[in-house]
Design a protein that fits this description.
The protein is an alpha+beta fold. The chain has two domains: 147 residues, Beta-Lactamase (2-Layer Sandwich); 235 residues, Phosphatase 2c, domain 1 (4-Layer Sandwich). The strands form three sheets. It has a six-stranded antiparallel beta sheet with strand order 3-2-1-6-5-4, with helices on both faces. The protein has a six-stranded antiparallel beta sheet with strand order 7-8-17-16-13-14. Strands 9-10-11-12-15 form a five-stranded antiparallel beta sheet. The two termini are 36 Å apart. This is PPM-type phosphatase domain-containing protein. InterPro entries: Bact_Sigma-Reg (IPR052016), GAF (IPR003018), GAF-like_dom_sf (IPR029016), PPM-type-like_dom_sf (IPR036457), PPM-type_phosphatase-like_dom (IPR001932). Keywords: Hydrolase. It comes from Dactylosporangium siamense.
Length: 390
Amino acid sequence: MQAVHNLVDALHHARPEDLPAVASKVAAVLGAVDIELYLVDYGQVELLPLAGAGGVPGEPVRIDGTLAGRAYTSGEPVRGGTPDAPDGERIWVPVVSGADRLGVLAAHLGTLPDDDAAFVRDLRALAAAFAGIVATRRTYGDALERTRRRLPMQLAAEIIWNQLPPLTFATPGAAVAAILEPCYDVGGDAFDYAINGSVLHVAVFDAVGHGIAASALTSLAISAYRNARRCGLDLVDSYRSVDKWVHAQYPEDYVTAILGELDISTGAYRKISAGHPEELLLRGGRLVRTLPGPTALPLGLGYLGDPMPIVAEERLEPGDALLLYTDGVVEARTEDGEQFGIDRLVDCVTKALADQLQPAETMRRLVRTLLTHQQDQLQDDATALMLTWS
């Protein structure tokens, strides 16, 4: 409790770059030599240490193949080293806000605590507190954002990331996990979700074009979708509202999208596919089928067809997963023109499901596989979102 009091007292006027100093103060109360905060980079490749005010950043830690990375991917504390080693013993603890994985805490131990189990519980509570702090303080300054960037972020990507919800969300009965690449240069792809009562809303967008023009078009589509949703419009009227705004502001362009709703009390899934690739339905770790689509014209082109789009329905079974994606995922090509394709997409996801990985880790591995296929140089934006119902 003393550590909690110290943390709360120190945060009243703390800047984002003051968090390392705050962690050090708390470490002394807990009996640790020091506590460091590492944030995951946008590509989920490395864990990057947050430098204090005027400090020099430490060395990044790779996620794959390290103890810190194991804590991040598993969601469980991981120990390494011994008290008498040069670097001492460390306990890596995941920093998670809700279901959104933000990074890890590294606690340096000088001697073994008297009550080891209680010490680990305290560290997990501290990590949870820091998760809330990072989630709320990231808008008060740029230190946290700068830490997370291994490369300069292009303006088009800056616009899109500022529009997005966290990559991962979970509520009793359902979970959402998404990826977005190339994370530092994305333009026209985006996703959104929201939970209202028993209804989980999900959407994936893919605007025509690239760069700032595409990101501006996508931003309009997301804002119009949220406006329609918050006004209480149903799927059909939400589609018509977004379609109207896209056509009014960008009469020569369009956005493909899936607008979906999952009733988490029954498993009933309803969607409008606006010129978008069909979702994949996975059951028992295997592809069952693709869902019907498209059921409407792309957003911005609705005036060319029936003004009343078709709403497709699917009844999910417990444990089912839906995979929504943009064409940049399956159309990613190697130098000799070989596409990533549906088969590789399904194979990657089903292997992760067979390993009983959490949705967030499944999607992280998917994006690593996708980038490896295309030598880390995507020619088009690639977005995927996994929706699971339990």
